[in-house]
Fold:
Amino acid sequence: MQNTVKTAISFAGKGLHSGKPATATVLPAAPDHGIWFKRTDVQLGDRMIPARWDAVNRSPLCTKLENATGLQISTVEHLMAALAGCGIHNALVEIDGPEVPILDGSAAPFVRGIMEQGVQMQAAPVMAFEVLKEITVRDGDAVATLAPSDTLRIDFEIDFADAAIGHQKKSLVMNNGSFARELCDSRTFCRQADVDAMQANGLALGGEAGENAVVFDGDTVLSPGGLRHTDEPVRHKMLDALGDLALAGAPLLGHYTGTRAGHSLTNTLLRALFDTPDAVRLVQCDGAMASRLPGHGLVWDEIPAVA
Structure:
């Protein structure tokens, strides 16, 4: 069955890129509502923004959504990953700023907040998108693929010149709590040279090494406290991929493979999937199928504790 949150859950902090404070409150929503954002700091016009692939204003640094009137909400990927990883299908996210708070740079605070308040089962069956054809998109040496699978599987590979990151590769099936257990506490990361360039261009204004991001410089981890996992960067890329894939509008049954892929390429992949005839179909999940979706089998004791 579909799920929503039991009660309102608020998360306060600053945006990673804008540096602006905001509070995002996740509210229960009716069956078949899906995930929507509402800009409460805007008084006029359409304040509702759908969390859907065709509302993405593609950006290489974060996932930005925009409604038909041009109203935007940025950096939704970690919250979307948490909602998907907790098996939340319906929610309204009210937010009083232009960017979702970055918190500690991972999805763990969102996951813990959602699960502390609890998940409410609803009287409507879960619908899922089943991938029927293999779809691949490329941008230079970056590649992303969706192929048929009876569950959501994410494979990711990265390769950075910085020795502290280097070549990393990981594969996970997203049910049985694997997102919360393996990925949700992995933080966003970047190189010091990228930080300098972004801040010079008015971005990453809310970023702080160790507080909400992992910063690398050559063979050195600059963030106090070091890494949460030896392969934290590739785990975070998988977290991002789950959040971006959650913009399909319903859970996906498919095998995602990303090689040096980012937010923009994953959105290009979803657009190609839905634009390709007979590549995907919407199916009603029976119990066996639902047991293979993200969020199934999540156990509180397996959620990493974060500061």
In short: The longest strand covers residues 21-28. The chain has a mean pLDDT of 93.
